[in-house]
Amino acid sequence: MMKYSHNQASTSLEEIFGQSLSSGKLTHCDRLQTGNALLQNALSEEHQDIINRLIYNAKRGRLT
Fold this sequence. Notes:
Radius of gyration: 11 Å
Distance between the termini: 25 Å
Number of strands: 2
Helix content: 55-70%
Order of helices and strands: EEHHH
Shape: globular
Oligomer: single chain
């Protein structure tokens, strides 16, 4: 499990994915952490899949 931090908060992509799907919302902080993870260019295939699923769900209107 890889953690990405922004300021003092630190959340894994798995946690972001679970929280966003259960709440139906992707917070601004979650978006920043996800974008930061993408910029690091060291994502595993599993983490790439998580980000792709978040994008897919946002496009389908399941996330706000």
